[in-house]
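Suppose a colleague, Dr. K., hands you the sequence of a protein chain of 138 amino acids and asks what its three-dimensional shape might be. Before reaching for any lab equipment, you can write down a predicted structure in token form. Begin with the sequence itself:
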Amino acid sequence: MLLSLIHSIQTEKEQREWLEQHVSREAVDRLYNKSPEAMESLDREYVEWTREVKRLAGRPVGDPEVQELIGRQMKMNLDFVGTEDIAEFAELAAMDEASFAGIASGTLSSFSPDEEAWLQEVIEYYVQENGFKLPGQD
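The predicted structure, expressed as tokens, is then:
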């Protein structure tokens, strides 16, 4: 986890440049220009969330504790990105894997491939069951 956070800091410039190719510069500026306190809080929350994912990995996707964890993470992400920019960043989800190849190769994951696959299933289940809609969507 620590290596992932350090690596993320080291590759921030490349990540920012990649985002600016796909999202408005203003939205990227708002994302990266958070206060030190907000960034520290996000780091702490991410570390705790990662621990919880590892603890719960492998449980059924519909497990209430698993779904509550994903709900908290979704809210944290929405709060961090901000409602004014979430639709722009959400468009990244529609991109194919090849589009992420460059940026993904420069990131480290805190999760094993099995944990990542499980997490993807859990998120898909959460969205399906909760009718997750982004602000501004009908």
